[in-house]
Fold UDP-glucuronate 4-epimerase.
Amino acid sequence: MTQLKPILSHLDALPSTPGKFKPDKTSPYHRLSRLHPSLSPRLTLWSFFVLFLVILFLFCSPPSATTAVSNTAVNGGKRRNLHTAAVLGPSLGPNWENRVWASARPTSKAGLSILVTGAVGFVGTHVSISLKKRGDGVVGLDNFNSYYDTGLKKARNSLLQKAGIFVVEGDINDAALLQKLFETAKFTHVMHLAAQAGVRYAMKNPMSYIHSNVNGFVNLLEICKSTNPQPIVVWASSSSVYGLNSKVPFSEKDRTDQPASLYAATKKAGEEIAHTYNHIYGLSITGLRFFTVYGPWGRPDMAYYFFTKDILRGKEIKIYEGVDHGTVARDFTYIDDVVKGCLAALDTAKKSTGSGGKKRGAAQFRIYNLGNTTPVPIGRLVSILEKLLMVKAKKKVIQMPRNGDVPFTHANISLAQKELGYKPTTDLETGLKKFVKWYVGYYGSKKKSSAW
């Protein structure tokens, strides 16, 4: 509308009745009107006709870069422009603001109001439902990207809908969308789980990691630090930040400056970015380093998931071994244990100290390992799956390629135990039994969204 101001100001100078208009004798209009007596009314008609066309053009044209917020949301490889906050409503469906407000409203007196990013992801779905069940208000945000099967994400979204959780389809890089969400619902907390996951995929699409894990995180923190009052932020880092560290078990005090993959590097960058926003703006931030989370509704790119798929199909599976036939092991952590750690981090977090983007005092900054502290060799993982599936796997042992994977992970969880009361209780065989039961039920049933 700012483009119309010069035209509208000119129209304001015209009289409401044509007969009272007396042009300046020095004006071009006056000089032209003296050329011929009949020219003045013709020019008047043509002027209004041209003016009408100009106004019509301006109203019908899309907003330009100078008059609109041209944030681009990446959604499953497709791009969607949100020019202004005013057009967000139609793009998200009817009455979306009311749905956000209702979903964010706690049902218990002590309940929190939480924005969960990456809500239709594996951890995001479980965390969101657990929060909702205990009486918190929850709004999800996810771009439903196509890194893995979007059908699985849509099925998770059906679970969230049944639980009364509204998920906004959008990208964390979309500043206009985030701003509108925070204006609509007064979130007390943000559980930031949105990220480009996977170690190996970074070799194919490195920019997706920068887009989500760095740019997206900064964009979210920018909104949070300017919100008044500032929300508390809990976010997902990764055990991958320990990289080439050879000291075990991995402790939060260990060095994390030798990442083995781009994914790990972006997560390490996220920790440093989080510290900066905590230090400058007073945001209360807690980072959680997840260790190989598994369970029902998991990620298809994880070894336990595609091993199950290939074993059932009679396909050969590749088992990595380290240098000199060294054992490759992972600290597998069951999803229910991780969820408890996430909720504990939210509940024990202290309030942010900033206001209007200005720090008022020292703010809380924490980093915790969330693992099972019991590394299991990959060969043992396969043996358990063979037992549960009652199928002998076709195995091929190969040298671990240089793709960013590390030979082992092992969490020291003493800090989380002390400060969060975190205590994992599910061993790998018990957890895999639950996963296999879900997997067979999900892929063997036409009504996939009913299996929880």
User: Anything to note?
Assistant: Confidence is low (pLDDT under 50) at residues 1-87, 446-452. The first helix runs from residue 5 to 12. DSSP finds 15 helices and 17 strands in the chain. The first strand starts at residue 71 and ends at 75.
